[in-house]
Amino acid sequence: MKNILVVGSGGREHAIIMKLAQSSHVGKIYCTPGNGGISKYAECFSVAATDVDGVVALAKKIKPDMVVVAPDDPLVLGMVDALQAEGFMTFGPKANAAIIEGSKVFSKELMKKYNIPTAFYEVFTDSESAVAYLKKQNSYPAVIKADGLALGKGVIIAQNEQEAVEAVHDMIDELKFGKSSARIVIEEFLTGPEVSVLSFTDGKTIVPMISSMDHKRAFDGDLGLNTGGMGTVSPNPYYTKEIAEQCMKSIFIPTVNAMNAEGRTFEGCLYFGLMLTPNGPKVIEYNCRFGDPETQVVLPMLDADLYEIFEAIYNHCLDSINVKWHSGSCACVVMASGGYPQSYPKGIEMSGLDDMGQVENCFVYHAGTKLSANGTFLTNGGRVIGVTACGKTLQNALDIAYCGVSKISFDGAQFRKDIGQKALKAIN
Ligand code: AMP
Ligand code: GLY
C-alpha cells in the first residue's frame, strides 16, 4: 500500500484526499497543514504549505511513497523540484513549468509565440507608459493584471479611465501586490460564458477532465467582489462536444507542445480558464494546479483511480490509463464567513455537522475549519466549507447540496443561493 502526503489546506485538498482514499493502492494519507475536516481523514502536520524546506524535512521524516503539492505558491517556489532532488515521487509541475501560472507575462508571451487564442495585450513596467496606452486605447472595460501571484486578486476590470489609472498606480507605483505587480499586463476585455477545464498531462498526453463552471463573485446575480470562488457545477453546459474538440486542437495540445518546445515540460494538473467568445474559445488564464472549488465537483465525477493517474503522470505513461467520468452532475455550494472576501471573524462555533464534519447525502469539503479543544468544528477562514452533492441531473445535485447547506449553520454564514442557475438556464 502507498502512503501519500498532500500539501495544502483547502477544500481542494480535502477533495483530492477523499478521492485518493478510494484507491485500492492507497494506505495512509498525511496532510500538511490540513484543516479541521481534513484531520478526520488524514494525519495532519503543522508545516506551512509554502515552507519548501519544512515540507522536504517532513517528507524525510514520514517517508511517503508520493507527495502531492496542490497549491500554486509552493509549486511556483519549486517544492516539487526540491522533493524530487531528495528522491520522492511527486505530483505537480516543477518550477520552470509552474511559471505558466506564476507569471502572466510569461503565459501571454507563450500564447502569442505559439498562436494560442487569448486576449490581445501589452506589458508595462512603468505607470506613465501604461497610462498613456490606456488613454490611447480609450476602450473600457479595460483588464489590468498583476504579473505574479496575488491570491486570486490581481485582476482588475476597470470600467472607466479613472479606475484604470488608479489600478495602474496601485500596482506599479504602490506595489499593491508586492513584487507581483511591478510588472502588469493590460489586455482586451473579452465576453462570453466562462468554462474551467482542468486536465491531466505528463507532457506527452493530455487528458481534459470533465468541464466545470465557477461562480467568482461574492453575491447572487454575480454581484459584489471577486472571491476565490463561491460555488461550482460540473459539467458546464456551455462546453459542448464541438467546443471541446476545438479547444483540444487550438488550445490544449498547442499549450503542451509549446511548454515542451520551451524546455518546460508540464507534468501535473494544467488548468485552462476559458472564455467562449463570439470569435471562438480563448484562454483567460492558466493555472498550474487543480482549481478550487472546481476540484470539489470534478473529482467526485471521476470514474478512475486517482493514484494510478498520478503515478502514470510521474512515469510519463498517462496514455496507459483509461480516464472515465460518471454521468449526471455535481454541485458545490461554498459557505463563507460573514464579511468574506474582506475582513471576517474566525473561531465561530459551527452546528449541524456530524463527528466527521459531514451532513447526510452530501460531501462537505472543509476549507477553513479547525477543531476546538472539545472536538467541535470552528470557522477558521474566509471560505469555510463546500457542501457538495452529485445527482442524476444538475437540478438534483443542486437540491441535495442546498438541503445539506440548510442543515449547517454558524453566525454570519454567507452563501450564494443561485449556484448553478446560469447553467440550468443554458440547459433548458
Ligand atoms: P483570473 O484571476 O485571471 O481568473 O481573472 C479573474 C476573472 O476576471 C476571470 O474569471 C474573468 O471573469 C475576468 N477576466 C480576466 N481576464 C479577462 C478578460 N480579458 N476579459 C474579460 N474578463 C476577464
Ligand atoms: N477557482 C479558480 C481557481 O482555482 O483559481
Q: How big a fraction of the residues is strand?
A: 25-35%
Q: Care to count the β-strands?
A: 22
Associated small molecules: adenosine monophosphate, glycine
Distance between the termini: 46 Å
Number of domains: 4
Q: How much helical structure, as a percent, in the residues? A: 25-40%
Instruction: Point out poorly predicted stretches.
Output: none
Describe the sheet with the most strands. 5 strands, parallel
CATH superfamily of the largest domain: ATP-grasp fold, B domain
Overall mean pLDDT: 97
Assembly state (oligomeric) = single chain
Rg over C-alpha atoms, rounded to the nearest angstrom: 21 Å
Proper CATH architecture of the largest domain: 2-Layer Sandwich
Structural class: alpha+beta
CATH class placement of the largest domain: Alpha Beta
CATH-derived topology of the largest domain: D-amino Acid Aminotransferase, Chain A, domain 1
- Biggest sheet, spatial arrangement of strands: 3-2-1-4-5
Shape: globular
Number of helices: 13
Summarize the structure.
The protein is α+β, with helices and mostly antiparallel strands and 428 residues long. The chain has helices at 11-21, 52-62, 72-76, 79-85, 95-102, 104-113, 127-137, 161-173, 241-261, 294-298, 306-314, 394-407, 421-427; strands spanning 2-8, 26-33, 43-44, 66-69, 90-91, 121-124, 142-146, 155-158, 184-187, 194-201, 206-208, 213-214, 217-219, 223-226, 231-234, 268-277, 280-287, 329-336, 363-366, 369-371, 377-379, 383-391. The mean pLDDT is 97.
